[in-house]
Amino acid sequence: MRKRIEVCLGGWLAAALLSIPMLGHSEPKEWMERDGARYLGLWVTAEGCPFTESDIRPVVEDEFDRARITPTRDSQFNLTVGVTCVPIVVEERTLGYAIAFDIRYGTGIYLYEFPNYGSLISAGDDTSGGDHFKASFEGGIRSALADYRRVNFGG
């Protein structure tokens, strides 16, 4: 049991240190400017989570609707949303999840390093944990789409 906790803590320390660049958002970039900006590719994945891609896709699409942008399957320029979860287990009991979500723009197979609108959070295995995740997640999507709108529509 002790080895499992040490490995888990070591992995989380590495993940936390790697996520530091995600804390700061940069200004919108000129490469976000697109012809046909009312359409934007969208790719969503979820790994190791108590929810699936099909559970979070509607949350992302709702933010697209609010921003008046239509999501497409375009891979030439897209917003890629990846969610990875790791259970927080103590004495064989899952207390919640550490959730890393990565929200970045990409072209083809390349993802821009900055800005990254994602975050690393922990959420309990209850309703309040789900609400915390959803609020953080929606905020990241909203910020990404606000920057895209600012570059393409001036507001």
Describe the protein.
The protein is an alpha/beta fold and 155 residues long. It is 37% helix and 31% strand. Strands 1, 2, 3, 4, 5 and 6 form a six-stranded mixed sheet that branches. Strand 4 and strand 5 form a beta hairpin. Helix 2 (53-66) crosses helix 3. The longest helix is centred in the last third of the chain and has 27 residues, at 127-153.
Which structural class matches the secondary elements? alpha/beta
Mean pLDDT score? 84
Rg, rounded, reads: 17 Å
Strand fraction equals 25-35%
Instruction: Please give the largest β-sheet.
Output: 6 strands, mixed
Beta strand count: 6
Name the helix and strand elements from N-terminus to C-terminus, one letter apiece. Answer: HEHEEEEEH
Low-confidence residue ranges: 1-10, 12-25
* N-end to C-end Cα span: 53 Å
Principal-axis shape: elongated
Helix coverage percent: 25-40%
Number of helices: 3
Assembly classification: single chain
In a few lines, what is going on in this structure?
By secondary structure, the protein is α/β, with parallel strands linked by helices. 37% of the residues lie in helices and 31% in strands.
